[in-house]
Amino acid sequence: MIGFTQLYPTFTSIGMKKAWILNDLYVSEEARGAGVGEALLHKARAFAGETGAASICLSTAPDNKAARKLYEKNGYHQD
Known about the structure:
alpha+beta
C-alpha cells in the first residue's frame, strides 16, 4: 500500500444532501511526488459524485504547505 484516504459521511441540512468529510489523506514518503495524492483526491471526488453528495470538506494544518498546495491545485478552497 502506498497511500489511502478516509471519507466520513455527513449531511448538509441546507442542501438536503449527503456530504463527505475527507478526514485523512496519506501517501508513503517513497511515493510522494508521483501523483498518488492527486489520484486519491480524484477518486474521492468521483465517489462523492457517484453517491450524489453535495460536497467534500477537508482540513489541514496551516503550516502543511505540501498538502495545501495539493488541495488548492485540485480545486479546494480555504473557508
